[in-house]
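FAQ

Q: What does a record look like?
A: Structure on top, sequence underneath. For example:
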């Protein structure tokens, strides 16, 4: 998964997640991002910076 700066659209980095990532949802307070990986039947949990 690529990480972008939303002000400049520049790619800041990359985070490894499971196979075939599809859908995202944020947790309460927006601190975590949950990403479903349909190819590996798993969920990746990313901590978001504020």
């Amino acid at each position: 998964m690529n990480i972008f700066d939303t002000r400049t659209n520049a790619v800041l980095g990359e985070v490894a997640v499971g196979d075939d990532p599809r859908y995202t949802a944020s947790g309460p307070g927006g601190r975590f991002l949950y990403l479903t990986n349909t190819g590996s039947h798993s969920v990746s949990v990313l901590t978001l910076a504020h």
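Q: Is there anything notable about this one?
A: The first strand starts at residue 2 and ends at 4.
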